[in-house]
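Late entry, written up from scratch paper. The run itself happened at the end of the previous shift, but nothing got recorded in the book at the time, so transcribing now.
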Amino acid sequence: MAAKKKSSGSKKEAKTSDLKARRAVIDTALAMSRSGLSPGRSGNVSRRVEGGMLITPTGMAYEALKPRDIVFVTDQGEVPDKKSRKPSSEWRFHLSAYQARPDMNAVVHTHSLNATVLACAHQPIPAFHYMVAVAGGKDIPLVPYDTFGTKELARHVAKGLFNRDACLMANHGQIALGKDLCAALELAHEVEVLAEQYSRVLALGKPHLLPDDEMERVLKRFKTYGQRAQKS
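Output as recorded:
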């Protein structure tokens, strides 16, 4: 009898955890949309879970989303629940991002204005400002264009995010990773701010870039920036 109670309790905990995770995806998608990072129904959000990921559905307004609308996609790219909504058309590059970066647990993809402008101009974001290091390297790279939702685009994204936490996608938008949804959304905002600043610098003329050795120092400092150096 005790074993049955334990099993029942475990199922209840798993259901509660799943519901909480789905709500977190919705909350992040709403925050992304309401902040102007992704107008209308553009962009998508996912969160890594055991055995796969939870991702926003395709073609639905974020304001209308309910926890049951968030789609579970397995690590193999399958949707086991046949009654489920269709996942975002971009589910492939979300999955490829998780495969490339096992240290990350959330993906936010946006069509934010300035990042998209640079992406359409095929302009990566170089070290014009030290805060470029927030994406984990000396620049924020641009990955090549391919049709949305394709395996080819997923491969480009995986390569671009292999040693960066964010990248621009040619003629498309931007994508940001995080340890959790809050971190991924915050990085997407940072990328958009940097994209706006860089666009304005370009309008003035040739940018003055920071040298590699300085960016190395910045990256080293970022490892202990803020609360990161505190011991638990």
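The radius of gyration is 19 Å.
(Scratch paper discarded after transcription.)
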